[in-house]
Amino acid sequence: MTEIVRELTVDEWDSIVHLSKAVGWDYHRKEVEIIFKNGTVFGIQDNGKLVACGALISYDEKKIGSIGMVIVHPSHQGKGLGRKLTEACINKKTQTQSLMLIATKEGEPLYRKVGFQTTGRIVKYTNPSATFFNDLVQAHPFERFMFQDVVDLDAMAFGERREGFLQDRIKQASKAYVLIKDEGIVGYGLAIDTPYNRIIGPLICNTEEGAIDLIRALLLGYSGRVRIDMPEKRERVEAFLQKAGFSLSATPPLMVKGELPDRNGTLISIAAQAFG
Questions:
Q1: Which fold does the domain 6-118 belong to in CATH?
Q2: Measured between alpha carbons, how far is 206 from 264 in angstroms, rounded to an integer?
Q3: Please, which contacts does 171-174 make with residues 24 or more away whose CB atoms are closer than 8 Å?
Q4: Which residues does the UniProt record annotate as the domain N-acetyltransferase (predicted)?
Q5: Rounded CA gap, 256 and 108, in Å?
Q6: What are φ and ψ of residue 30, in 5° steps?
Q7: Is the peptide bond before 202 cis (omega within 30 degrees of 0)?
Q8: In terms of Cα–Cα distance, which of 31, 38, 28 is closest to 66?
Q9: pLDDT value at position 2?
């Protein structure tokens, strides 16, 4: 095969979804669409078939780039394709842009070789099948006039403005809630339904008690599989999740190349591993 890395186009979305299924991952068409809208996707083919891909996702100010959706077909693993795609993403970033990614255990040594350092671990909780809450919550349904306040809140938590991404994500969301106190909006959360589960994130709040209320709101009346990925341990949130039937399913490494902008510590759960 000729290991030529090229930028993929929107008519190759289904090939990416098929590749994801080949490794047991759960990327679906809508998720791939949002990745394309917010980043650049690279791929490698063998005899006209997509056998590897990877994406660099950038946000409004291009302070942070998130490398994600790095997938290599099982029949082509061990041939250096993952490294080629990672290097393509690194070469695509701006000169001042820092990079982050969430690695698999197998991928961590590769990313170290190209300059990434492990800075923490994602705390991934899942609940395979449950019926959730129908009680009262303090959170309010998101309304369109709240959007700029949510963008500002998100920027302080994430370290960069993500207005374009949040526009897409809120449209995709099955539920969107905000938490309002005297000082205004202090938290927000989204629930994203996929063919496989409900993802809780991004979720940002200035207290863990508020975060728990947002989680309850996002799960009102829901029955099915749920996933929440937190960028750091949260004692009270984790106790709540465990009591609600969640279990800790993985702690993949969070890796960074460069220095991330300051964050204010209110990022409770991430949008998805590809988005950082």
A1: Aminopeptidase (3.40.630)
A2: 9
A3: 172/30, 172/34, 174/198
A4: 3-143
A5: 11
A6: -65, -40
A7: yes
A8: 38
A9: 67
Token couple for 113: 């070789």
Q: Label residues 94-120 b or e (16+ Cβ within 10 Å = b).
A: eeebbbbbbbeeebeebbeeeebeeee
SS3 label, residue 133: coil
Amino acid of residue 244: A
Give first-to-last CA distance, the chain, whole Å. Answer: 32
Instruction: Quote the CA–CA distance of 35 and 20 in Å, as a whole number.
Output: 14
Residue 6's DSSP bridge partners are 43
Structure tokens at 150: 């949510």
Domain ranges of the chain: 6-118, 124-275
> CA 15, CA 4: separation in Å to the nearest integer?
17
Please indicate whether the domains covering 6-118 and 124-275 agree at the CATH topology level. Answer: yes
Q: Are strands 98-102 and 64-72 parallel, antiparallel or unpaired?
A: parallel
Query: How confident is the model at residue 3, as a pLDDT?
Result: 77
- Of 91, 21, 86, 20, give the one whose Cα is nearest residue 55: 86
User: In the chain, how many H helices and how many E strands?
Assistant: 8, 15
The residues with which 57 forms a beta bridge, in sequence order, are 39, 66
Percent of the chain topping pLDDT 90: 92
pLDDT at 112 over 70: yes
The average pLDDT across 237-252 equals 96
- Which CATH number is associated with domain 124-275? 3.40.630.90
In whole angstroms, what is the distance from residue 128 CA to residue 32 CA? 24
Residue 76 has which token pair?
Answer: 């082509």
Token pair 């994602």: residue:
122
Per the document, the length of the chain is 276
